[in-house]
């Protein structure tokens, strides 16, 4: 099957994932904004309230997924933009891995925060 | 003997010899009318000239790497008498033939089929021969296509564009010919309709010049080449196997995924080819195709 | 110096087909063209390609129609070759992917065209030439044939024996427009001229600005006779302000011509009682001009072509680009109003004398396409017969040049046994004014071995260019427009002796003026001023030959109408006019038409439609 | 493609005047996308104060004196932050609307109306932003 796989390049897959994550983000970001600015007002934020939400498994997992997709979508978007402007060669490889590293840090930090609220020991 | 139509010959000789013939009278009458019209027009033109409207002001980009005084790019101004129906190309030709024979631009067909004269007119990629002066604001600014190397004046180097066009294997390929020597391949009308617009490209390069992605990524195939690929990928005469290969070509690193749907290409194409639509359709085809394997 | 087996000059339909054929026959081919191939004027052809494809049709009928259309001045072996091979060539185009319009059953569509007894014109919308040109260029790309684009061929490299029939062509000299460099192209097996039309001889033309007849003029000066130059087709439906062509397809689909009084004059004034608008082009052109001359024209200039009754759907389906043309170039909306049209120069039936394999009298020199005269169109070309000519004779010339055995030619070239001298006295001196000016002259070569023939030609071209660039003088543009004006005024659809003579005098004057011509742009980069100046010389030579032919032929045949001679004179004029350059002293002579074909002998009949 | 010869005026930013809808949409989408990812990083950074807060003990949390709550409350107290949040909303809304436009484009829907849909995205973004100003500003004074 290996040869068959050569018929698609990551370009196409990434493009597709960018769209899929966009669709997901569209819903979740709307929900997120609505929840945190309209249902609960910005000046009412407190650790308690955050942690109350986070303790629900469904909310927790939605937020983690939100974080992961947003990071992927955002970082991949940035990377694409740079590549489209003619980023090539070593520079490109360096930036690529820097972005990957930044994403990993971002996601890790995000999960730790969520864990802190959810009362999960891992933070 | 006479292969000719007797009536016509007779009449045309008649008109020459007998001034009183009906045709002649009518002609004379019409001449008078035409003369009146002409007079009127001349008056109007004179008025216009007085109001300084009868000439068009052209600002033309000039550059020549070899000629002293032109090595530093500059704009030259030409005042060209306006006539009804005048195109940018007409104005340029007038300026060249009357004022400065070194004014250089490509042109040939004057009818939007050869694709030689895509230029940057008042900030848009246009075919000069297809752009009416009367539709433009004055002064009319004419520059060579952006994002291309200027050879001289309005002439740009098209080599890169040609390379991109030829990179997509722009030729029909199939292994499935009908049996008879004199048998054509069948193609239904619908399919021909589907590829129709894509076959109209005249290689003018306007689209490529307008696309920011192509400007940034020199290797991007560009809208015209992708459209060319579309023309073959969608042609059902080529068969499934070929389509697969075509999709691989346009899926390459600098292929369809580069397109950011800026729509500028579609906007400027003088042949009204829905380029963005074609690119998008190829992206979908490619994804569909890949989903089979993912 | 570049070296190839076959060098094809020009990359329009004929050149591309010739290159492909030569390459398939095993030759190393190079194409040299002053325009990038896809910019060639073949792309402008709209209407279609005639080919007897269907069972109910036959190539014999096509040949008959072509002969009749030619007013019996076509040479039967060439006409029959055209009609016999056109079907397979059209199918080949289809196999190369050309997007023809289709019928419901998926076969290629055909439509009726003027002068044809069967609807045998295959087409791709109203952009047949564009599709054909691009399809063939694609094949050239596929085969990896070398293309030198934007190289202007200035001259042929020909040996200088006294008798043109003994000369050999060893290659060409070309000027690289991009860099200003002049190079020789040595052609071991042959040079094929495919430089297209010469419409720029006139000022109201459907032809491109690049159609300056360079190949015709080069071959002429190298010693190849010009054949039937007086036969110029004027297309009846061109837009008055630009000369842009409105395809015959409009009339084929049912478009109607009206005069100012709203009369359908083709019938009502009896110009063509059977075929009406679909009569042969010369008939319709003269009818229109007669209407205008008799005061029934609109604005005293044109008539109306109306297609509104065809309905929007049909127009959009088959004639869509006509709508765009009328709107972009004339500001008329074909869906809601009739389009203004008038006759304009369209096609040159005559040209470089060749036989049915494209060979000229000079060894190793071939010609195909509009620049050549085989002759298939005789005194008048039928619509849709030029595109098949490109592919049929392009292929033949390509193969022959590459050395394929093709048998004995039946059409003769040069002065074979039955030529006939002409005793016509031109009142005006014609030909070279004074060969001493290196900028204006480009005579024959002096060597015999290939290398030095090409080398010598390069040197002369270089000298000429240097001279043009370095001296001061007048601009070519005024000379060019003087020629175009006199030609349009006097050598148009209607021709009379006195005015033709005047034209020769005007041309003489233009020649004198050309002696002072100079190029004011000193650049070596993309110097179009220089190119146009060189082209203007070609225009001059062609205009003169054309007018000479028009004066000599004292009859009315096909597209050639003479005021003083209102009938076709078969006893006297069933012959081709030929003009030889004779190193600057043009000479007129004749050769008989070949009416015996393989199929039958074509008896001249009255040409009524 | 010219890298070697810079034509100044023609190829520099002076060209923005000549951009059409599709190009503006592209530029705005880019800009908003970058702002959003930038914000995502800062957002997580700010929220991370929740980690020390969680370690600081129940009491502080209950009283609302933990680092996290304090940080958020003080930030939200600043008018500037509130205004930035309105900006963020505008950016996010535009990116979402135009993103939807792009997704439809990818599906081949509404290509002919691409300019109109861009203008619609702009107008809607404006409307939504203005409409939510009261909510966003509420309690800031
Ligand atoms: C508007 C229009 C519509 C037509 N419609 C039809 C139709 O419907 N059906 C039909 O059968 N016929 C039609 N014709 C006629 C037909 O299109 C032409 O006769 C034919 O295309 C000529 O092709 P060609 O290959 O001989 O020349 P072209 O296509 O004109 O090519 C000439 C080539 O020679 C090159 N060249 C010229 N001079 C030089 C030089 N000095 N050095 C190097 N290269 C040179 C040019 O670059 C070009 O590549 C139409 C013609 C016109 C003008
Ligand atoms: C809410 C729903 C969202 C939708 C519908 C959406 C849609 C899209 C789409 C379709 C693209 C691809 C553009 C292209 O490649 O042509 C894109 C790019 C991008 N998105 Fe989003 N997006 C959303 C949310 C987000 C979020 C939350 C972020 C930040 C984390 C983000 C950051 C980006 C970035 C940085 C780009 C790349 C921009 C560029 O081309 O420079 N998006 N978005
Ligand atoms: S797609 Fe349109 S704009 Fe692009 S090269 Fe072809 S005709 Fe020109
Ligand atoms: S302008 Fe460029 S980005 Fe895509 S839609 Fe056209 S190719
Ligand atoms: S001159 Fe041929 S496209 Fe404009």
Automatic annotation (TrEMBL), chain A:
It is found in: Membrane. One of its GO terms (cellular component) is membrane. It holds the Pfam family Sdh_cyt. One of its GO terms (molecular function) is metal ion binding. Keywords: Heme, Iron, Membrane, Metal-binding, Transmembrane, Transmembrane helix. Its main location: membrane. The chain crosses the membrane at residues 20-39, 59-82, 94-111. This is Succinate dehydrogenase. It comes from Halorubrum tropicale.
UniProtKB/TrEMBL annotation, chain B:
Keywords: 2Fe-2S, 4Fe-4S, Iron, Iron-sulfur, Metal-binding, Oxidoreductase. Residues 199-273 form the 4Fe-4S ferredoxin-type domain. InterPro entries: 2Fe-2S_ferredoxin-like_sf, 4Fe4S_Fe-S-bd, Beta-grasp_dom_sf, Helical_ferredxn, SDH/FRD_Iron-Sulfur, Succ_DH/fum_Rdtase_Fe-S, Succ_DH/fum_Rdtase_N. GO terms for biological process: respiratory electron transport chain; tricarboxylic acid cycle. Residues 58-162 form the Succinate dehydogenase/fumarate reductase N-terminal domain. SUPFAM superfamilies: 2Fe-2S ferredoxin-like, alpha-helical ferredoxin. Its cofactor is [2Fe-2S] cluster; [3Fe-4S] cluster; [4Fe-4S] cluster. Residues 1-54 are annotated as: Disordered. GO terms for molecular function: 2 iron, 2 sulfur cluster binding; 4 iron, 4 sulfur cluster binding; electron transfer activity; metal ion binding; oxidoreductase activity. Residues 19-28, 36-51 have a biased composition (Basic and acidic residues). Belongs to the succinate dehydrogenase/fumarate reductase iron-sulfur protein family. This is Succinate dehydrogenase/fumarate reductase iron-sulfur subunit.
UniProtKB/TrEMBL annotation, chain C:
Coiled coil: none annotated. GO terms for molecular function: flavin adenine dinucleotide binding; succinate dehydrogenase (quinone) activity. Keywords: Electron transport, FAD, Flavoprotein, Membrane, Oxidoreductase, Transport. It is a peripheral membrane protein. Its EC number is 1.3.5.1. The keyword Iron-sulfur does not apply. GO terms for biological process: electron transport chain. It holds the Pfam family Succ_DH_flav_C. The active site is at residue 281. It is found in: Membrane. PANTHER family: SUCCINATE DEHYDROGENASE 2 FLAVOPROTEIN SUBUNIT, SUCCINATE DEHYDROGENASE [UBIQUINONE] FLAVOPROTEIN SUBUNIT, MITOCHONDRIAL. Belongs to the FAD-dependent oxidoreductase 2 family. FRD/SDH subfamily. This is succinate dehydrogenase. It comes from Halorubrum ruber. The lineage of its organism: Archaea, Methanobacteriati, Methanobacteriota, Stenosarchaea group, Halobacteria.
From TrEMBL, chain D:
GO terms for biological process: tricarboxylic acid cycle. This is Succinate dehydrogenase, cytochrome b556 subunit. One of its GO terms (cellular component) is membrane. It comes from Halorubrum ruber. Keywords: Heme, Iron, Membrane, Metal-binding, Transmembrane, Transmembrane helix. One of its GO terms (molecular function) is metal ion binding. It is found in: Membrane. InterPro entries: SdhC_prok (IPR039023), SQR/QFR_C/D (IPR034804), Succ_DH_cytb556 (IPR014314), SuccDH_FuR_B_TM-su (IPR000701). The keyword Transmembrane applies. The chain crosses the membrane at residues 79-97, 118-140. Signal peptide: none annotated.
